[in-house]
Design brief:
Keywords: Coiled coil. It comes from Actinokineospora bangkokensis. This is Chromosome segregation ATPase. There is one protein chain. The protein has 447 residues and is an alpha+beta fold. Among the domains are: 120 residues; 65 residues; 119 residues. Helices cover 63% and strands 7% of the residues. It contains 14 helices and 7 strands. A 5-stranded antiparallel β-sheet has the order 6-4-3-5-7, sandwiched between helices. The chain has a two-stranded antiparallel sheet with strand order 1-2. Helix 4 packs antiparallel against helix 7, helix 5 packs antiparallel against helix 6 and helix 11 packs across helix 12. It starts with 9 loop residues before the first helix and ends in a 24-residue tail after the last helix.
């Protein structure tokens, strides 16, 4: 028994308790560790390794796909740089008003220029159309190497000329630039294939062939223009012949009437019937005035009628045709325009007589120039305008006498032919002045 008895220090007791608790916790943890290191832990580790392997494989495949995509995109860019758009529809949609590359006076001038250019092409083809530089030997012979180079250059030139000749034969006005671009691609391809021997088509020769394409396209357009002008001139002459025939017929009719009234006047002068004589002389004077008017119309080629007509069934409600005719009966011309070439007859909105119908027609066309339907062929005198708009223009342009004006189109044939009327079983128009039109075309007067 000690001096102070056998009672232990409380702090030591508490420390021993803490140590015991810690040892129990360690034992429990050791048990859990043992379980985790058992069979279940091994399976999870294998599963984890498989997942990591799959992720790595997917990453590698993704990288390969991305690389193939980049290669394909680069190849697509290269191919597109070699492709020339030659589809007819796409080129037609892009075409505008044709711009001559080499403006000349007429088709004959183009033919002569083309002949001279083709002579230069043949001369250059025999001399310096293609270049070749070979500084290596064949079978130990430098001469054989040079001969091989010359033969390859001739072969390349023949391939180029075949493409150029085909381009000249196939070119159309709207494909001109596409054909030239394709020939330039052919020249570039030949340069790549002949790079080892420094074979290339000379720039001067290539310019000549491109100029040949330009001139050929220009010639085609000019030839079409001259054909259209010739057709217009034939139409003008036919219309002029109709006018003169109509004038001669009217003149003969009036001359016959004048002879009749002159005879009546002579007899009345002899008989002394003063009252009847006055009436006969008035009738004779009226016939003389009519004859004078016919002679004036025959002499004045600019006098005539300007007409404004529409055809809702064929062209819609907001389109009019503005033309002129020298006919004594202008409606004859309007009826001709509504023949079998259009499904319905034209409606007349305005009919003007003018001593200078040509100038009046040109003034109307000028005021409506930005509304032309056909901006290439100005003989097609159709405009996007309403009859009321044209009437207002006519009022501002002069004080010529308006013989007829109607703002709303009757369009009897079109209205009677509407689907609703057909479904309702509407009867055909009989006795309404609607008859079958004869053969013909929708050409303008050309006067």
């Amino acid at each position: 028994m000690g001096l102070f008895g056998n009672r232990e220090n409380p702090e030591v007791v508490a420390l021993r308790q803490q140590v015991g608790s810690a040892e129990a916790t360690i034992a429990e943890l050791r048990g859990w560790v043992g379980q985790l290191r058992g069979v279940d832990a091994s399976a999870r580790e294998a599963e984890l390794r498989a997942l990591r392997s799959a992720v790595d494989a997917t990453r590698r495949e993704h990288a390969e796909v991305e690389q193939r995509t980049r290669d394909a995109q680069a190849e697509l860019v290269a191919v597109r740089s070699e492709v020339v758009e030659t589809r007819e529809l796409a080129l037609l949609q892009q075409v505008g008003v044709y711009d001559y590359a080499h403006p000349l006076e007429d088709a004959l001038a183009y033919k002569n220029t083309l002949a001279a250019l083709r002579k230069r092409v043949k001369e250059m083809a025999r001399t310096d159309a293609v270049s070749c530089h070979v500084d290596w030997s064949v079978n130990g012979s430098a001469r054989e190497g040079q001969k091989l180079g010359r033969d390859m250059a001739k072969l390349m030139l023949r391939a180029y000329n075949a493409e150029a000749d085909n381009a000249v034969r196939a070119v159309k006005p709207h494909t001109r630039e596409a054909v030239k671009e394709r020939l330039s691609k052919t020249r570039e391809t030949i340069g790549k294939l002949g790079k080892l021997m420094s074979i290339s088509v000379s720039p001067a020769y290539h310019r000549l062939r491109l100029q040949e394409i330009d001139l050929t396209a220009d010639y085609l357009v000019k030839a079409d223009e001259e054909k259209e002008q010739a057709r217009a001139e034939r139409e003008r002459l036919r219309e002029e012949a109709k006018v003169m025939k109509e004038i001669e017929r009217e003149r003969a009719k009036l001359a016959k009437e004048r002879a009749h009234f002159a005879t009546v006047v002579t007899r009345l002068e002899a008989s002394g019937d003063a009252e009847a004589l006055v009436r006969a002389r008035e009738q004779l004077a009226a016939v003389d005035d009519a004859l004078s008017g016919v002679d004036h119309r025959a002499a004045n080629v600019r006098a005539g009628y300007v007409y404004v007509i529409s055809n809702i069934g064929a062209f819609g409600p907001d389109m009019v045709k503005i033309g002129m005719t020298r006919r004594l009966e202008p409606m004859d011309r309007v009826r001709e325009l509504g023949d079998a070439s259009v499904p319905f007859r034209f409606d007349t909105h305005a009919l003007f007589f003018s001593e200078d119908a040509v100038a009046l027609e040109n003034a109307l066309h000028h005021r409506l120039a930005d509304r032309r339907v056909n901006v290439v062929n100005h003989r097609r005198e159709f405009f996007y305008a309403t009859p009321a708009e044209v009437r207002d223009l006519l009022v501002t342009l002069g004080d010529d006498h308006v013989l007829e004006y109607t703002e709303t189109a009757e369009a009897l044939e079109w209205r009677a032919s509407s689907p609703d009327r057909r479904a309702a079983g509407a009867p055909a128009l009989v006795g309404a002045g609607v008859d079958a039109g004869g053969d013909g075309d929708l050409s303008d007067d050309g006067e």
